[in-house]
Structures are given as C-alpha cells and as structure tokens.
TrEMBL record:
It comes from Jiella endophytica. Keywords: Transferase. Pfam families: Glyco_transf_61. Residues 104-268 form the Glycosyltransferase 61 catalytic domain. One of its GO terms (molecular function) is glycosyltransferase activity. InterPro entries: Glyco_transf_61_cat. This is Glycosyltransferase family 61 protein.
C-alpha cells in the first residue's frame, strides 16, 4: 500500500496513490534493421533523432524512447529522413537494448527497461544501445557484466545493421507506469551477491552534492540513534549498494536517483520517501507497484523559503521535525524523536549559505556573458 503524509494537495495525493502497474510487455522480431546513432536536438526537454528502422527505412513504433507528456506515454524520437547515409557495422542477430543514459537515475529506469527479456530468455548475444551521453559510466559496465550482457554501443558516426533484431517492449515508462517485468534484471543481479553485513534498517543519504536537502542530517541522526545503517551511494561500490538494498527490510531516503535502487529489494517491508520539493516523480510510485511487496510512505514536509535554482540544483529545505514525527507514526522510529533545535538552526543556516553560493555563481556567469 502507498500512503501520503504532509502538506500535499488532494490532486497530488491522488497522483501519488494512483495504481501505476503496467501489463506484461511483449517482444517483436524484425529482419534487416538499422540502428543509427542518436542525434540530440535538445536536452531540456529531451528531443532527438533516433529509434530503429525497418528495411524500408521507416522507424519501428515503440523504439523512440517513451516518456510522460501530458499524462500519456509519448515517443520522443524524431525519425531520420534517411538512415542509409550512415556507414554500417553488421550483426547477424542482436537484441535492441534501447537508449543508454550515463545519469544513474535514467540508467536505472530507462536503459534497463528492455532487459527483462534478456533475463527471461537466457539470451547471451549482443545487446545494442544508442548512446545518449558522452561516455559509458563504470557502474553501467559493472551492471552489464554482473548480468552477463554483451553490451554493444552504437558508434557516434556509424549505424548498426542487424539481420534479425529482437525488440522487447519497455517495461517502464518514466512517470507513467511500470510492469513487474521491470524488476527481473535487478533481482537476477541481487541473487548473485552474498548477503551484506549491513543491518536490516537502511538510511540512504543524499549528502551535500547537487540538489542537497538540508534538514536531512537531522533526520539521519534520529534514525541512526535507533539502529539504522547509513548508505552513502557516492562512496559505496555498486555491489555494496545492491547488497544493502537487497537485504534491508526498512528503507528511508530523500527522493532522488539513488532511491531507484529499490528495484534490487528482496526483503523490504517498508519504504519511507522524504520529499525535497512538492512535485514528486511518479516513477517512484510506479516502482512501488511493480515490486508490490512493501508499504511505501511519502513524507512531504517541504519548506523551501527561497525559490530552488533550476535543473534541480536546489538547495532544498525539509522540515526535519515533521519528518521525524511521521517516521515515528509509521513505525520507522520506535518513539517520537526529540529534535535538537541547534541542529535545525545550523541546517537552515547552511541552506541559506548554499542558496546564495549558487545564486552568486549564476550572477557571475551572467555578468561574464554580458
């Protein structure tokens, strides 16, 4: 079950609580296909030329990366006028893996969305990805290796021609829905790791990077006093992160990329999400529905007295005292935590300093361009 606490509108509450479980994805097979390199037209919002093309040169529906536009799953890719212009590398057969993203969150929910079929079928051949970033992250190579995937990345100036291409449907569409099939690759990877030494109560720290949530440290301190083990994704290896999520029964964390690793959960009973702004990505409720084995609690206690900077730079300020009260109410804390007001004041001071640091840098950059 999903629950929402805090200051949210009735509309937002309904959006979070809506059932977002999608149906079982299917697979199609196409002969003599071309997979061209993507050409990015805009990154905000994302627009690009890409997709997969049949032997007549038409883009195959469902291969253009779907995202939420106006509440519906909509393909973002614009078809190339002519894909025959690209030099090609040939493969007799392959699987289309979709778009590769270097960003951890987008990797977790989009790059992996077609891999359910690879796991289900036991396929060991090449899996072709169109690269949407400037490089291939080490965590991605580690993930593919653990899953036993022969990842092939389409070269920047060359297409791939495949004699027989298997195209699995995506098992998740960002901010729309997720299928139970989405979790299969993650469960397969998690099974291969030994049980972690971390406890069954896990706090996933966001820390002081981009988009920091001030007030978090006060909540973290309260949870640690009651036995929660803290996981810092910026310091832990991918294997350590996977094992920690797979082992935990209770998980709490600020909403962000690292919490997509919930897909590795094997034993979770409760998940507490700390919102850093009023708009919550509905990808998380969709993942909750796809896993379906735990209760999730969305704690929306957003202060943010100053307007957050664009592109999720933040900073954000959460009401730590309200979060702790709700964590006690929902069973993560055994009792209401006595929040030290000195911690609250210190975090709010840090929040103001960080906001002004980003603002000063923005103004200096604007002055330099003038």
């Amino acid at each position: 079950m999903k629950y929402v606490f805090g200051d949210v509108s009735n509309i937002q509450r309904e959006v979070i609580l809506k059932n977002r479980l999608g149906g079982e994805p299917t697979v199609s097979i196409h002969d003599n296909c071309i997979v061209p390199p993507p050409s990015i037209l805009s990154r905000g919002p994302l627009s690009f030329r890409g997709g997969v093309y049949d032997e007549s040169g038409r883009m195959i529906p469902g291969t253009g990366l779907q995202r939420n536009i106006g509440g519906k799953a909509t393909e973002l890719a614009i078809a190339y006028d002519d894909v025959s212009k690209f030099p090609v590398e040939h493969f007799a057969e392959a699987v289309y893996g979709g778009c590769y993203f270097e960003h951890f969150g987008h990797f977790m929910v989009e790059t992996t969305a077609r891999l359910w079929w690879v796991v289900e079928s036991g396929y060991k051949g090449p899996v072709i990805f169109q690269v949407m970033s400037t490089g291939i992250a080490s965590f991605a190579r580690t993930f593919f290796s653990m899953l036993g995937i022969d990842a092939v990345f389409v070269p920047r100036n060359m297409a791939v021609r495949v004699g027989r291409l298997t195209i699995p449907d995506a098992s998740l569409v960002v901010q729309v829905w997720a299928s139970k099939a989405f979790t299969r690759p993650f469960r397969e990877v998690a099974k291969k790791l030994p049980s972690t030494g971390r406890g069954e109560r896990l706090y996933v720290v966001r820390g002081r990077g981009v988009g920091s949530a001030f007030g978090e440290a006060t909540v973290q301190k309260a949870l640690e006093r009651e036995g929660f083990q803290t996981l810092d994704p910026t310091e832990a290896s991918l294997q350590e992160q996977i094992a920690a999520f797979a082992n935990a029964r209770q998980i709490v964390g600020v909403i962000g990329s690292a919490m997509h690793s919930l897909a590795y959960c094997q034993r979770a009973e409760q998940v507490g999400y700390l919102a850093r702004n009023a708009t919550i990505s509905t990808t998380f409720p969709a993942i909750d529905d796809a896993i379906g084995s735990y209760d999730s609690h969305y704690l929306v206690n957003v202060l943010n007295p100053l307007p957050p900077h664009p592109n999720l730079q933040g900073p954000f300020l959460i009401d730590a005292e309200a979060c702790c009260d709700q964590l006690a109410e929902t069973g993560y804390l055994r009792r209401r935590s006595q929040v030290d007001l000195r911690d609250v004041i210190a975090e709010r001071d840090l929040y103001m300093r960080e906001w002004w640091r980003i603002e000063s840098a923005r103004r200096a950059a604007d002055a330099g361009r003038a």
